[in-house]
User: What shape does this take?
Amino acid sequence: MDYLIEEWATQVAEAELSGTLPRRWAHTQGVAKRAVEVSQVLGQNAGLLVAAATLHDVGYAPRLATTGFHPLDGARFLREEHGADNRLVRLVANHSFALLEAEERGLREELASEFPLLEEPLLVDALVYCDMTTTPDGGRTTAEERVAEILGRYGDDSVVGRFIRRAEPEISAAVGRVEAVLAAQPR
Assistant: This one.
C-alpha cells in the first residue's frame, strides 16, 4: 500500500505544482527524497511520511490558494477533492509548526479545530526535518540555514518572518530529535 500512496501523492503534487510553480516543485521533490531517506525509522508510517512530504506544499498551487495559507488550503484540497487519508491531511495541515503561522494570520482556531495535530511526535518531527533541511531548489541544507533563507526571502517583519522566528526553536528541536533517532540506527 505504501507504494500506492507515494505514487498517488507524486502524481497529485506534480499535477498541481510542476507547471505553475517549478521551484516549489523542486523543493517538494527534495523534501520527498529526504523522507525516503529517513523513512526507515518510521516503520509502518514510512509511506505516510513520504506522501505527506510530497504533498506538504500543494496548497501553494494558484488554483488551490483560497485562504492564502498553504497548509490549510492544501489540506482542504486533499480532503475535499481527493478524500485523502485523515492522518495525511492532518500532517499536511500542520507541517513545520503551521499552527504558529496560522496564529500570525488569525487562522489558529480554524486550523486547530478543522485539522488537529497528530499525536505521533516522531512522524510530525520527521516531516519538519524533511522540510526544514531542504532548500527551495531541493538541495540539502541545515535547519539554521533554511530559517535564515526564509527570513531573507520574506523579511523579518512579514507574517512568514514573524512566524519563522517564533518557530525556530521548535524547528531546531524537532530536527535534533530526528537526527538523534537517525544516528542511533545501525549502519
